[in-house]
Amino acid sequence: MRTEAAQRVELVFSLFDANGNGVVDSDDFDLMTGRVLAAATASDDGARAAIRAAFRRYWTTLAAELDTDGDGVVTVDEFRPVVLDPERFGPTVTEFAVALSALGDPDGDGLIERPLFVALMTAIGFQEANVHALFDAFGPDAEDRVTVATWAAAIEDYYAPDLAGTAGDRLVSVPES
Length: 177
Description:
Layout: H1 3-16, H2 26-39, H3 45-66, H4 76-79, H5 86-103, E1 111-113, H6 114-124, H7 128-137, E2 145-147, H8 148-158
Antiparallel strand pairs: 1-2
Helix pairs in contact: 2-3, 2-6, 3-5, 5-8, 6-7
């Protein structure tokens, strides 16, 4: 696994541990889902249901694939070695990428405006400065928007263990002023 991917793993674990108790469990995904839905006030019921389902699938996939001792929680030691395995998590990541990027486009024009992007990403737990750096890396248009497809592809790239230098790497490193 590339160094960049290893750094992403550590960050993702800390985000998934939404309640900060040192392990990832079902409650963490409920917490994160609630925060994201609170930021997506303009999204329709279909988009909201899709992100709920994507978060739920993410948890059930993690639990099935990583909870090696069956205790209902995923420790960082269970998480690190395999969470970026495309064979195990590719379809789950794709579902999540599609649902989250669609949630960022409540008017259905195929474009995501910066304020909603920032609200959704900070609701997940990413640092705001890093979220802005990521949005800038997408090359927003003159009206400060990016395409849904760009964001969805970047989410999938973020979980690829063999990629480095992706836009999503800006979420790990603090941008320089």
